[in-house]
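Budget justification note: compute hours in this period were largely spent on complex prediction jobs such as the one shown. Inputs:
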Amino acid sequence: MHGFANPARFLRLARILTIPLLLAGIVVTLAALGWGLFGAPAERLQGDSVRILFVHVPAAWLGMGGWSAIAVASLAELVWRHPLAGIGARAAALPGAFFALLCLITGSLWGRPAWGTWWVWDGRLTSMLVLFFLYCAYIALADAANRDGANGTRLPAIFGLVGAVNIPIIHYSVLWWNSLHQPPSISLGKSEMAPAFLYGLLAATIGFSLIFGAVVLMRMRAILADAQAEARLRRRAMEAVDG
Amino acid sequence: MVENLNHWSFVIASYGIGVIGTAVLVLSSLLAMRNAEARKDKARDR
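Corresponding output:
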């Protein structure tokens, strides 16, 4: 992990990976969504609304995965003072918030035909909404801390770690409390899903994840480039004052 | 009782929001990266 603590080495790798990751993600995602729309069969009980699964489930996993990445990066920043960890966490926040919001919207659009309601205040939906609000708070906190300079990065890192307590609550909410939301259909090494849905869902998840990775790399490159530009301008200003 | 709604309008709305939202996220991140790297190069060349 410390091999990539050097921003120059990280940037060399990021420049190679960004566009291939993005293109692969777009191709795989479009293929999976095409299968979801035109290839997958309608489900016996839910009818055609089951096709929303191919957008909703990857969005839910990436919403939770984004915050898990923020928590791991925050730990790396607080414990090992990894110089890129805080930048990685900041870069993951906006795409994470987007996928959490996409999960909420597509869940609502699925709930209307499947449950007869847009929203219920049950454990799963409420804890996912809390995750979206946590992302909004993290983005505001990280932006404010960035304006304060390097000394302000500890507070968002602590918030990123503490907020991770919501991830197991989201995951187990359908088991702990009564809910309209169905329990997990997929767990490690086990699936109750028909292959026509399972493989398309895995492809959609891989595709959206590749896009997520490319977006995080792009945003890390933007943060690093801004920091380098600012450092150069400051150095020039100091030289002009000294000269 | 669940009403007999046309499911396809909900499906199309979900896919549309997913695809357009992801495209906006990707394009805004790409533009932010390009602009920031151009600013960095400009600061170096000054």
